[in-house]
């Protein structure tokens, strides 16, 4: 399904990326964020993120119902196209342009954090990695670790092939002796 574009309530910006509504692949990150942001307390704390207060109570109940249906279908691994379109339409009515821009910004941060992991490594290992990076002319720890793992995988692959060759040689030797 093609990503749905945000329908601007004020003037459409002339520069920058156009805002997009939710995509199916983002739901795992986006749903908890949306539930948290549409909460009436959150709405009261950031009124410029949301459309008129008179719409809020009616839309809130409908939006939560639609979100719950979307979650239910997602859990059953069913097609979400129609439900997602409905939810996106409601989100477009619920948030202001500024509010949705802030949602997209926060969602982007969540996705970035999900891609990164932090591990603790001793100073000795860091120094060894830095020396390795210098010798291999690598720019980052990611590159160094990826390079080391690739070398390791290649070595394992080679060892596996060598071991397979040894087994075949042994089988042939046994067959030749038996004849």
Describe the structure concisely.
The chain is mostly helical and 179 residues long. It folds into two domains: 24-115, no CATH class; 123-178. It is built from seven helices and no strands.
Q: Rounded to an integer, what's the Rg over CA atoms?
A: 27 Å
Compressed to H and E, one letter per element, the order equals HHHHHHH
The total beta strand count reads: 0
Structural class: mainly alpha
What level of helicity do the residues show? Answer: over 70%
Distance N to C terminus: 66 Å
Q: How confident is the prediction overall: mean pLDDT?
A: 85
| Sheet with most strands | none
Low-confidence stretches: none
Shape: elongated
> What number of structural domains do the residues give?
2
Q: How many H/I helical runs?
A: 7
Strand content: under 5%
Coiled coil: 63-90
Keywords: Coiled coil
